[in-house]
Amino acid sequence: MKVLVTERIAKEGIDILKNEGIEVDERLGLSHEEICNIIGEYDALIVRSATKVNEEMIKCGKNLKVIARAGVGIDNVDVESATKQGIIVVNAPDGNIMAAAELTIGLIFSIFRYIPQAYMSCKQGDFRRNKFKGVELYEKTAGIIGFGKIGALVAERLKACGMRVIAFDPYVSDEKFKKYGVEKVDFDTLLRESDLITIHTPKTKETYNLISEKEFKKMKKGVRIVNCARGGVINEKDLYNAIKEGIVAAAALDVLEKEPNFEVEKQDFYNPLLELDNVVITPHLGASTQEAQVNVAVSVAKEVAAVLKGGIAKNAVNLPAFEKEKLEEVMPYLELAEAMGKIFIQAERAFANKIEIVYSGQIDEKAITWLTRALLKGYLEFSVQDTVNYVNSQLLAKEQGIEVVESKTEEAGKFKNMITARFTTNEKVLELSGTVYNNEGRIIDFFGYKVDFKPEKYMLLIQNIDKPGMIGRIGTIVGEYGINIATMQVSRNKKGEKAVMVCEIDGDLPDEAVEKLKNTDGILRVTMAKL
């Protein structure tokens, strides 16, 4: 068994592999072409962030069984291509959570007490302290956006400073808020009441530009903002303007939407925020502690060793290795189950305290556990900060306080196989059903309405009053924004009452267009769903 390591990882990780009798080949600084030329010899590949593991490289890795990213994210690995080749992809989702939380606290103190600015002033021989009159954390309100593992660690530390801590995360159970003594609030309340806002969400289509001009205008004047999560969650141009206008007193950013090359000494990177004296920017140091680097190296080394020894990786971000024929059979069901989870959470934006999944017909018993995990993965990807994968989704669901119930029945009506998911929220129970035919997943029941559509990348999910002219109005508004409706499914249970419409469209409909649809007479609800 041979492992190729293309970027530097801690020695402790290398030692774990060698102690398992695995040959480790550390070849740093290879070009993409050089890796493609040799990767066919190896059973595993370990990278960090610089190596771009794309489809070409994966196809060259004819013997690859596992690809490991020594870090939290997985942006530089083509997971879909690896999955198609039956290759497991693993990462180290918990390796740097303490490092990220502690950096957040350090940056908070920095912008409340102007520590970096005072240091630079002293370095330049200016010791006047009247320029650096700070603000105390004590008895101020801290607003945490994203109450996952890192958000909870930050909350504990801010409460120790005597702060009132509030948090917004609609996908976390009330029990978790109570456990940490944190007030659960809606997004607007957090924006209005916080003296400090710290962000701990993943970067998704839902959280991209989560804080922009509209949100800044709702904030308390003098608010301070910290982002150690992902670049792009804050609109940087709007942040710049909010600082210049005096809404934001100071900001600290460890991440930027466009980041420089961290490996070179001199570069021409520029961001207007660097001009502002009350902005602290650090070069993505969230995982840069000795402990975190050892943690991620040890974690991925154990995962790689487990896979190569025939075991199951705990932090697989795709699925365990199936035989090629079995993978082709199971894949449409996995994609369908994951899509069902994504459709519910985007359509309802509500926490489900119970998810019941019924498997009907001749679905492979061995695949059922992975189908459940796929459905939970789809649901949780839009609702938790943690990296969600097929292996950890059940554990994360349990941590969120979700009761998951599985059952199997031979009866599937007119279909060979069927998956039904019932989502119980505090207000109602909603049901989705799907099946696979012609090797393609189809949704056949959408919250009690009979439909038949294939989950697609961009979908408009609409609830409306059943009356003439609705289809035309919707088509006209979507067309105004240059987007074509590829397919449309319309369903009603009773004439003149509520109906549903599912439209596959050719692109992402702007928020402005979605608002226009919402304000159209006869439309009850609109969701722009993205798979």
UniProtKB/TrEMBL annotation:
Alphabetical UniProt keywords: Amino-acid biosynthesis, NAD, Oxidoreductase, Serine biosynthesis
SUPFAM superfamilies: ACT-like, Formate/glycerate dehydrogenase catalytic domain-like, NAD(P)-binding Rossmann-fold domains, Serine metabolism enzymes domain
Pfam assignment, any one: ACT
Protein family according to the UniProt entry: Belongs to the D-isomer specific 2-hydroxyacid dehydrogenase family.
EC number: 1.1.1.95
Source species of the chain: Caldicellulosiruptor diazotrophicus
Domain ACT: 459-531
Catalytic activity: (R)-2-hydroxyglutarate + NAD(+) = 2-oxoglutarate + NADH + H(+); (2R)-3-phosphoglycerate + NAD(+) = 3-phosphooxypyruvate + NADH + H(+)
Pathway: Amino-acid biosynthesis; L-serine biosynthesis; L-serine from 3-phospho-D-glycerate: step 1/3
Name under which the protein is recorded: D-3-phosphoglycerate dehydrogenase
Extent of the signal sequence: none
Keyword Amino-acid biosynthesis in record: yes
Function: Catalyzes the reversible oxidation of 3-phospho-D-glycerate to 3-phosphonooxypyruvate, the first step of the phosphorylated L-serine biosynthesis pathway. Also catalyzes the reversible oxidation of 2-hydroxyglutarate to 2-oxoglutarate.
InterPro entries: ACT-like_dom_sf, ACT_dom, ASB_dom_sf, D-isomer_2_OHA_DH_cat_dom, D-isomer_DH_CS, D-isomer_DH_CS1, D-isomer_DH_NAD-bd, NAD(P)-bd_dom_sf
Record-linked PROSITE patterns: ACT (PS51671), D_2_HYDROXYACID_DH_1 (PS00065), D_2_HYDROXYACID_DH_3 (PS00671)
